[in-house]
Every structure is written in C-alpha cells, then in structure tokens.
Amino acid sequence: MNNQPLEFEKPVLELEQKLQELKRQLAERNIDLAPEVLRMEQKIEATRQEIYGNLSAWQRVQIARHGARPFFLDYVGLAFTDFVELKGDRLFGDDASMPGGLARIDGIRCAVIGQQKGRDVKENLLRNFGSPHPEGYRKALRLMRIAEKFGFPVVALIDTPGAYPGVGAEERHIAEAIAVNIREMMVLRTPVVSVVIGEGGSGGALGIGVADRVLMLENAYYSVISPEGCAAILWKHRKHAPEAAEALKLNARELLDMGIVDGVVPEPFGGAHRDHAAAAANLKAAVTTSLREVIGVPIDKLVQQRYDKFRKMGVFQE
Fold it and tell me: pTM, whole model, 2 decimals?
C-alpha cells in the first residue's frame, strides 16, 4: 500500500504503472506476451532491490515520516486486543496526541501508550501532528502508575517529531513534565518495553522511552534533534538535512551497534507503509518476546538493570 510515493520510490512506481498499462493492453487485444510481462516484473523487482537494499540515512527518515505508515492506533488495532482507552491527566485535560489505555498483547495484560499522528488536516489538528502537550506526558505517567499498581507491564509506542514547543505548552511546563516522566520511569516498579515505530524526536520521545527493552522498527529514527534542525544549526540551512542525518547516526542498526537500542524490528520490504498487517505482526512478535524476557525478572533487579542500562550510555572524557 503506497499511494504517496517518496522521491526515490518513483522509478519503481513508474515501472509498476507501465506494467499495469501493458497488462491492460494485452487483455484488451487478447494477446499473450507472458515473457514480456515476466521481464518487466523482474526489472521491477531488481529496481526495488537496488533502491531498498541501499537506503541512505535520509531516505530512512523519509520512510519514517511516510503519511501511509501505520500509526499508534493502527498498531493497537492490529497487534493488541481488548483495548480500552483512558483519557485525561486529572490536572488539566486530555491530549489526543498521546492516546493510551489498557489492552492485551498475545494474552498479556498491559498498559499501552503512544503518540498518534493524523493523515489529513482535520486529524492532524486533533492530534497536534503527533507532538504532545504537557498533559499528554502527565496522562502517560498516570497510566504507568495504574499499570504499576496492578502489576501490568507498560508498552510505549514512540512516534513524534518532538514535544510541542508552543507558548501554551511552555506555560504548562512541558520540560518539567518530560523530566518527571524520565525520572519516574527510571524507578517504575513494573516492566516497560518501548518501540520507536516512526519518528523518535528528542525529549518528546524520551518522555515515554525509558524502558527495560528499547526496540526500533527497521526504518524508524531516534535522535536528539531532527536532521533539519541539526542542519539549520551546523550548516545554517535546512537543505543539508541529508548530511545531518548521516552525521547524527539516528538509524536503527547504528543505534543497535552503539547500545542505545536493544533490538531492531524488521519491516515489510520497502517499509511498513506497504503492508500494515505484516508490520503489526512483526511488532507484536518483538514486543511479546521482550515482555516475556522481563516479566519474570525480580522487580528490584529489573529496576537496577534499567538504571544501569541508561547510565552506561555515551562516552566520557576527563
């Protein structure tokens, strides 16, 4: 499913359109040219392999932002069951960009939270383009504490360009809300698994990303700043975003090698937007495996391992 091709995907789309036109003409004229159709299909597959087998960091960022990519609620519908949404932070209001609630995944009861984007103008305004307000993070923490109270693990699906930086968010202390979440998640006495399913932008991602197992989808990205933001600072122009993406080391395999994430979830060939069901099946398998690994660990040991995991990240020089 790809009705919004990215620039580097257009050669494949053009070949697919030519193949469809060829098949249409052959059907109308009742001509059998099976070898020609086969050669065209082989060319399409070779082109697809060449493109998707050598994706740059910037191309993976573009895939992570693809408008047809499955979002949080898509994964909830496909990979989880018995979802009951819980709303409000009990302080200010509800944030539609950070939905969450109780659900089951492969029979395991859990709290599931995440950032939700929209696919049209109306939904994007409702979801604030996937950029949560302070009340979104406070709602997420409320759900985590419910999970802790009843002994449910927490599953967090991350997909945000960053927390909302507007005046209202600053007035309601967005930085403090994220900081409190990071602090409280570090000592949360229940298992936590997080998955970066698309964009993992800055503190907006980390506000629900402190976990015993941090996973990433193959074409997601996880970074302290967006490539465009980095380019604007270092190169003084957003046109250098591709170079910034390479320099930031924000892709799943690079972050796995550095020990920032614990696993990479494979996507359907060409990206999760091409097959939502397959992408959800892969995510479900990875999350379930991670949950079963951490659920049996004594809670004191689990919390200490979580703390140690994040403390050892990075390189220090004196």
Answer: 0.90
CA distance readout (Å), 197 to 95, 140, 187, 241, 290: 20, 17, 24, 21, 16
User: Has residue 2 been placed in a domain?
Assistant: no
Which residues, listed in sequence order, are joined to residue 222 by a DSSP beta bridge? 200
Asked whether residue 295 falls in the same domain as residue 238, the answer is yes
Q: Does residue 274 lie within any of the structural domains? A: yes
Q: Is the pLDDT confidence value at 3 over 70? A: no
Same domain for 23 and 146, yes or no, is no
Dihedral sign of CA atoms 204, 205, 209, 210 in order: negative
- Parallel, antiparallel, or unpaired for β 100-105 and 81-85? antiparallel
Q: Kindly tell me the burial class for residue 123, based on how many C-beta atoms sit within 10 Å of its own C-beta (0-12, 13-18, 19 or more).
A: middle
| β pairing state of 192-201 and 221-223 | parallel
Position 185 in a domain: yes
Structural domain includes residue 316? no
Query: What's the domain range around 75?
Result: 61-311
135-177 pLDDT, tens digit each: 999 999 999 999 999 999 999 999 999 999 999 999 999 999 9
Calculate the CA dihedral of residues 283, 199, 136, 206 and round it to 10 degrees. Answer: 90
Give the integer Cα–Cα distance in Å for 115 and 121.
17
Q: Are residues 158 and 188 in the same domain?
A: yes
In three-state secondary structure terms, 142 is helix
Digit-coded pLDDT (tens) for 246-281? 999 999 999 999 999 999 999 998 899 989 999 999
d(CA 227, CA 250): 9
